[in-house]
Inverse folding.
């Protein structure tokens, strides 16, 4: 790489007189490890990164402007799907919870439990992609194929339930678009039985792999106080050792009735808050998600999933901020209603956007190759960063 | 039964207490409040004094608002722009919403970037979309739109340009 040209050279006789200076390298927008169209402006001193300046906006699709031009709140949901397209269920979940709070609707228990199952499935799917592509960034190709294979099984369940594999438009304000199929519970239990050993396999294959640990431990350390100041959330925050999960700390839906743990980074292979910790939080979260799904499907009550869907969605004037825990972190919707059927303002606080803004704090002083490791450990989806 | 999540010992403050404490300390910087608003009580603050109020909210032992959840620009129509701050405390488990209002003729708000680093990108976004200028922001550039874009797209009176650098703008 050209960057080596600027490494300080000592030539006998010349010594200090030889000038070296920092160099600016553009990484992206077409770079395989930036997970989409992200451009990083790296200021490097030899191989050492002095500063990183992310340039975003390549995938900006005016989500917030679109919302203000809808004729109905319901029409926003397909757009919300397209923000974090690998975990679309979680995006819908946040939006419908926000709208229901604005409309003061209580939804049936059955709907809540199905939503929780779907949201946790989407957490598993998202983490599988995060883990698989992270391995690929680091140089391990095989785990990616294993992850994709397991992801297919979840997508099959989604497809059977609502007909779509990626962008579902499944959760509606007040209910769901379809009830689950009669053999849903059996399929879900089958998956849980199948998936637990797969996590173990993934651990043997990647998590405790010596090369993988060498590449990720002690790299991109984000201390807890810096993490909070940057308001990062999700596995990035928990990787820094902060026990903060909205499903426990600010419960919504039926999460307060379910029993699960919040995994945090403990610095087992290096320092608390390094890339390996952030990675490992995702592995443990998948285990917890399986626990939640098993409990929820066990308790799934009967009832009609469409009974609370309002005929007319026209909330009273007012505003609401609702945050939910998506696989990437805290997804917030700030919705202002002016009493009409069109949202006056929808602001999305995207977890990836905020987590990415902390990237420079993690990268300063690292090597160029570490940038790839740090970026992968944040797990960004550019669709959600740019909206 | 599942035990409730561990709550730390200090008691959360009510919106009323937060408002009174702010009013007592900053006086005329606190313009208005609706402490019984459902679901989120809010306090309105003078745009020029936001930074000192936020610094107090973050550092005071009673407040400890260590998390800025969200910062949103808003166009309230009629030349009125606003910024809304959603603050949360991970220590004391209380929340407050701060609002501030400016006119589009003089859209200057003091930046809270030095209080919460997360505000850096949020403020850039609000500048990009609404043209709200955050005084004291170290790097106030457009973030989502191209650097040479004209106008502020999320303003209610925004007209989509026909051309951008000679290219037709669809939609």
């Amino acid at each position: 790489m050209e960057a080596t040209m600027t490494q300080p050279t000592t030539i006998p006789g010349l010594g200090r007189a030889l000038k070296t200076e920092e160099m600016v390298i553009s990484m992206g927008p077409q770079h395989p490890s930036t997970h989409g169209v992200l451009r990083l402006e790296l200021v490097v001193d030899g191989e050492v990164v002095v500063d990183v300046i992310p340039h975003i906006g390549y995938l900006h699709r005016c989500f917030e402007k679109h919302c203000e031009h809808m004729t109905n709140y319901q029409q926003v949901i397909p757009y919300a799907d397209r923000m974090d397209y690998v975990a679309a269920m979680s995006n819908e979940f946040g939006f419908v919870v926000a709208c229901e709070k604005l409309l003061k609707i209580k939804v049936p228990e059955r709907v809540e439990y199905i939503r929780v199952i779907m949201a946790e499935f989407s957490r598993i799917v998202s983490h599988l992609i995060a883990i698989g592509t992270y391995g690929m960034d680091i140089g391990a190709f095989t785990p990616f194929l294993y992850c994709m294979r397991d992801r297919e099984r979840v997508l099959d369940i989604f497809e059977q339930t609502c007909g779509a594999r990626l962008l579902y438009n499944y959760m509606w304000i007040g209910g769901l678009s379809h009830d689950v199929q009669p053999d849903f519970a059996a399929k879900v239990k089958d998956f849980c039985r199948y998936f637990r050993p797969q996590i173990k396999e993934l651990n043997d294959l990647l998590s405790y792999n010596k090369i993988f640990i060498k590449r990720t431990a002690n790299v991109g350390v984000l201390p807890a106080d810096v993490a909070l100041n940057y308001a990062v959330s999700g596995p990035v925050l928990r990787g820094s050792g902060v026990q903060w999960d909205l499903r426990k700390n600010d419960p919504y839906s039926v999460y307060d009735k379910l029993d699960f743990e919040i995994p945090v980074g403990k610095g087992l292979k290096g320092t608390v808050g390094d890339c390996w910790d952030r990675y490992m939080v995702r592995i443990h979260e998948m285990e917890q998600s399986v626990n939640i799904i098993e409990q929820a499907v066990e308790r799934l009550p009967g009832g009609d999933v469409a009974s609370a869907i309002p005929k007319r969605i026209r909330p009273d004037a007012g505003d609401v901020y609702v945050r939910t825990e998506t696989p990437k972190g805290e997804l917030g919707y700030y919705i202002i209603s002016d009493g009409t059927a069109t949202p006056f303002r929808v602001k999305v606080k995207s977890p990836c956007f905020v987590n990415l803004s902390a990237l420079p704090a993690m990268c300063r002083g690292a090597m160029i190759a570490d940038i790839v490791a740090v970026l992968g450990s944040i797990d960004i989806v550019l669709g959600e960063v740019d909206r | 039964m599942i035990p409730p999540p561990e709550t730390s010992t200090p008691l959360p403050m009510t919106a009323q207490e937060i408002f009174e404490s702010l009013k007592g300390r900053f006086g005329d910087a606190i313009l208005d409040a609706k402490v019984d608003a459902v679901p989120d009580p809010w306090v309105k603050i003078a745009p020029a004094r936001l930074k000192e109020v936020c610094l107090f909210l973050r550092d005071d032992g009673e407040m400890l608002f260590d998390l800025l959840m969200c910062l949103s620009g808003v166009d309230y129509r009629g030349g009125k722009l606003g910024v809304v701050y959603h603050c949360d405390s991970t220590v004391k488990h209380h929340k407050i919403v701060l609002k501030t209002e400016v006119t589009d003729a003089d859209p200057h708000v003091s930046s809270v970037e030095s209080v919460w680093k997360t505000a850096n990108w949020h403020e850039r976004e609000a500048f990009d979309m609404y043209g709200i200028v955050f005084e004291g922001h170290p790097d106030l550039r457009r973030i989502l739109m191209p650097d040479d874009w004209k106008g502020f797209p999320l303003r209610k009176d925004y007209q989509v340009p026909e051309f951008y650098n000679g290219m037709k703008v669809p939609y």
